[in-house]
Design goal:
Distance between the termini: 21 Å
Helix content: 25-40%
Order of helices and strands: EEHHEHEHEHEHHEHEH
Radius of gyration: 17 Å
Strand order of the largest sheet: 2-1-3-4
Number of strands: 8
Length: about 230
């Protein structure tokens, strides 16, 4: 039985055999035991693989809802996910459970825009920019959308690995290199970038390095989950 004060995380399929050891989680990741004050509990969403979640498969909505409900039954005080593209199911899950639901760091975009001067821009670092479409950003006004600069790491080692079955581990150094290169590229053409938002739930492990490199605020799903947990006490 899970703790009565657990943080619930919905996970994608990884194609790991039942007896296969799970790779040790990196500090700062959703699975690391020291990431949250409350213990985290996990539910895999059946059929939710990286490729169809990123692409946006509407048939996954019910499996997401059912998995979230199982987490609440196990004692989850809030629900999040390990893929920012799961924001597509935010409304349905929030309507189906009685705890806060924060499926993606993309939920922060409207608030972050309001923190900046009118010329300030947000850089959204995503796993796949081809599928991080405007409807996921939560901003209807075209002028405000123009302040959101989206860049992805598609084609890199982490991008390729996450599409494999089973999913092999990717080194922290490799993820950091991909994210840092994307940030540098975006800042060269958009010097007004004042905030970095990491969409991918695999990126928080490199957030401290990106803060050091850019000297900019860096937000991600872990920082949003921690704020939510703190608000719940």
């Amino acid at each position: 039985m899970a703790s009565s004060r657990s943080f619930g995380i919905l996970e994608l399929e990884r194609d790991l055999s039942p007896d296969a050891p799970r790779p040790n989680p990196s500090p700062g990741s959703l699975r690391h035991p020291n990431t949250f004050e409350h213990p985290a509990i996990f539910e895999t969403v059946p059929g939710a693989w990286v490729e169809n979640v990123v692409r946006g498969d509407p048939s996954l909505e019910l499996p997401y809802v059912k998995a979230a409900q199982r987490l609440v039954e196990r004692g989850a005080i809030a629900i999040s996910s390990n893929c920012g593209f799961s924001i597509r199911h935010q409304t349905a899950i929030a309507a189906a459970v009685n705890v806060p639901v924060i499926m993606s760091s993309l939920l922060l975009i409207p608030a972050l825009l309001r923190q900046l001067p009118a010329f300030g821009k947000i850089s959204v670092l995503t796993y796949d920019s081809a599928h991080c479409s405007e409807d996921l950003l939560g901003v209807d006004d075209a002028t405000q959308r123009a302040r959101i600069i989206v860049g992805g790491i598609e084609g890199g080692e982490f991008w390729h690995n996450e599409l494999k079955r089973p999913v092999p581990p990717t080194s922290v150094a490799s993820i950091e290199a991909d994210v840092a290169a994307c940030v540098e590229r975006l800042r060269r053409t958009n010097p007004e970038i004042a905030v970095i938002l990491l969409e991918c739930a695999g990126f928080p492990i490199v957030a401290p390095a990106i803060r050091r490199l850019t000297r900019l605020p860096v937000y991600d799903i872990v920082s949003l989950c921690r704020a939510t947990a703190a608000a719940l006490g």
